[in-house]
Write a structure and sequence with these properties.
Chain lengths: 385, 325
């Protein structure tokens, strides 16, 4: 445990970066979303626009198409976007980290610049109908046949697969070895023969989550990421970055809603009951604690520590913040329970976001899995026999 | 402070805390006095007493965490870190009476003092003979101490301030200094409480590894593992909040630091108490006894949550945007 003083401050050049980004944003504002334009398509255009200004992958080395700056620089851009109520940078940070750590040099140069530029859109094929929390129990197989593999199986919760070109796919390459050494990772082009993508409609009406059916799909050996059997550590690195409070860019979005609640507490002082006003104060505390926690993690990361099992703390604190925030918001703005959110799922926009907040304790590893990780990997408690 | 120097000081406090930790709730007055004397010999009052201060707030906060990690009767906050800071803020004209050791005065319910005339107590007053009271308008007075006031926390010394005692005005804090002072006090108390919670949770994790039931260690049961994981999440939240707030005091305007400090205290009020309660649950029956240290931690954290600012005070204030924004 690091208990020496940390520098929670911004590096000196960050103010300048923020100023330059604001100036750029003033000249390249968020485009208009087309009347029938699906959100992912719109966000993809936004991604391309941000990339054209050099604002994507600031913490990725220049040789892979980034800017070679620190995580703090990328976080500052996310902050600025959030503060301006603009959509954030697409969530590619954790995929980029996985590739940087596990892919070969040739693969990094092949995929990373296109990922950052939005020329390739990636999705994540990890979970399966029979392997959710027990991810190592996956049954999708990649059987080697000379210089290629034949993949069979089914993936689930693959977000925005219908808008993606490549899938970071986990499959079992050895059925005899223990689970954690028999899984390999691949970059699967989704237009390949034998791949079927079927969107699922989520409780909030969105069709983010997809099923992926894989029937005798051919994957080349050159599309395998890292060594055969090395997929598990890659998956763990990916999810631990995914859980990290910094890489997800959610925090500034929470900040906007918290301030909206606090303004309501001030403007409707005589109308809102004391209990609800306290709950708004508590939401602000959660949010500020998360900001402080992320700043502490950043300082630790700059001091040379990468995301590990500690990111389970980040995920649990983020979940706590998000779920209490949306629950409280619906109590402050009960009118959001009525009306039409625009996608045929009844309830206002805030209600849709509330429904999505229920997933926070499930995706990226359930809260119970995070507690298991903390108990075993951080606290060193013994396993049950 | 240089990094090496800080590690030395931190180690001094850790060694001191290990040596003077109390083992049971039957406290000897002579041991209390001896421990306070030993603390005085560490010379830590210089950390914030000199101008400019020798240590940052973040460094002092980390030392307060160390002090909080053991059941100690010594007054690190009151006499070593808080009162010297107050005198430093007041400047040269405010030297206390020669030969006295001040701590700070709080309202009788242990919140920040109210208007003059409201009753006061001297808080965290082991080894102290005066108490400095900061009125809501920033006026600082020095009061005499009366007899001990029994309170739920057996470790922290509280004494009455006789109502008739003449209060000498020591000086007056400007508005920014007052804001800084409140933030500083909130952060250091929060740090001590989070240190206590972290230490007690660590002890309960160790106990869960050793204690066997049904032929296996209770720490192998998922129900117990999840309790302990939750306790450490709470400790991490409190730690991040207090260390960040301490950094704000060193690097941000006082108003921002006060908001961060209120957030830290509100978080710790809830999380330290919950974490200690979970630790006690894991210890089971043994932690319900007078002999066990559990209730010393619980008493300290419980009374600490009502000290300076209660959760209700803080959440009500934090519910609305800062006016100066």
């Amino acid at each position: 445990m690091n208990d020496t003083p940390l520098d929670f401050g911004d590096p000196a050049d960050l103010d300048d970066l923020r100023r330059r980004f604001r100036a750029w944003l003033a000249e390249h504002p968020l485009p208009e979303r087309g009347a029938d334009e699906p959100l992912p398509t719109f966000l993809h255009r936004w991604h391309r626009q941000l990339h054209s200004g050099g604002w994507v992958g600031l913490d990725v080395p220049q040789v892979y198409g980034g800017q070679g700056l620190s995580t703090l620089h990328q976080v500052a851009i996310s902050d600025e976007l959030g503060a301006g109520a603009a959509p954030g940078i697409p969530r590619i940070g954790y995929l980029a980290h996985a590739l940087m750590e596990f892919a070969s040099e040739e693969q990094r140069q092949r995929w990373l610049p296109r990922m950052l530029a939005g020329e390739d859109v990636w999705c994540q094929g990890f979970s399966e109908p029979g392997a959710g929390s027990d991810l190592a129990g996956m049954s999708t197989t990649a059987t080697r046949e000379g210089d290629h593999y034949i993949v069979n199986g089914q993936k689930l919760w693959t977000s925005y697969a219908q808008y993606s070109g490549l899938c970071l796919l986990l499959a079992r390459t050895d059925r005899s070895a223990p689970a954690h050494t028999s899984i390999s990772a691949f970059a699967l082009p989704l237009d390949r023969a034998g791949v079927t993508v079927r969107p699922l409609r989520a409780a909030n009406g969105d069709d983010e989550f997809c099923e992926l059916f894989l029937d005798d799909v051919r994957i080349e050996e050159s599309e395998r990421i890292g060594a055969e059997g090395n997929g598990w550590p890659l998956a763990m690195t990916t999810v631990s970055y995914e859980r990290n409070a910094l890489d997800t860019g959610h925090i500034s979005k929470y900040g906007l809603l918290v301030e909206r609640l606090r303004r309501a507490a001030r403007d409707r002082r005589d109308e809102l009951p004391d209990g609800l006003r306290s709950e708004i104060g508590r939401c602000f505390v959660d949010y500020e604690v998360l900001v402080a926690h992320a700043a502490r993690r950043t300082a630790e990361r700059l001091a040379g520590r990468t995301a590990g099992p500690e990111s389970s703390y980040d995920k649990l604190l983020m979940t706590r913040t998000e779920q209490r925030l949306y629950e409280t918001a619906l109590r402050v703005f009960p009118e959001e329970l009525f009306g039409d959110g625009g996608n045929g799922a009844e309830g206002g926009e805030l209600f849709g976001e509330y429904l999505y907040s229920r997933a926070a304790s499930v995706y990226g590893g359930t809260s119970q899995i995070q507690r298991n990780i903390i108990a075993k990997q951080v606290l060193g408690l013994p396993s049950a026999r | 402070m240089q990094a090496e120097e800080f590690l030395l000081v931190q180690d001094l406090v850790r060694t001191f805390a290990g040596r003077h930790r109390v083992e049971s709730a039957d406290l000897e007055p002579s041991a209390r006095a001896a421990a306070q004397k030993a603390l005085g010999e560490l010379g830590l009052a210089e950390l914030r007493g000199s101008s400019p201060p020798a240590a940052t707030v973040q460094e002092c906060a980390l030392l307060a965490e160390e002090h909080g990690s053991q059941p100690l009767t010594t007054s690190l906050l009151g006499t070593v870190l808080l009162a010297p800071e107050l005198l430093r803020l007041l400047g040269d004209g405010a030297a206390p009476e020669v030969g006295t050791t001040p701590t700070i005065a709080l309202a009788r319910d242990l919140r920040f003092p109210g208007p003059p005339g409201d009753g006061l107590v001297a808080w965290d007053c082991e080894g102290a003979d005066r108490a400095l009271c900061v009125a809501p308008d920033g006026t600082v007075t020095s009061a005499e101490l009366g007899p001990a006031v029994p309170a739920a926390d057996l470790l922290r010394g509280i004494r009455s301030v006789p109502p008739g005692s003449p209060a000498a005005t020591v000086g007056r804090l400007g508005p920014e200094q007052l804001t800084h002072w409140q933030a500083y006090a909130l952060v250091l108390l929060s740090s001590e409480l989070v240190g206590a919670a972290r230490s007690f949770v660590r002890q309960s994790v160790e106990y869960a590894r050793e204690r066997r039931q049904y032929g296996r260690s209770i720490g192998s049961f998922q129900a117990v593992q999840h309790l302990l994981a939750d306790a450490t999440v709470l400790v991490e939240a409190g730690t991040s909040a207090t260390r960040y707030a301490a950094w704000c005091l060193d690097n941000q305007p006082p108003a921002r630091a006060l908001t961060a400090a209120r957030v830290a205290k509100a978080e710790v009020n809830a999380s330290a108490l919950d974490a200690v309660s979970i630790g006690m649950q894991v210890f089971g029956g043994i932690a319900q006894t007078w002999e066990h240290v559990a209730h010393l931690y619980l008493r300290k954290v419980l009374l600490g949550t009502t000290t300076l600012a209660t959760t209700a005070d803080l959440l009500t204030t934090l519910a609305e945007p800062e006016t100066a924004r």
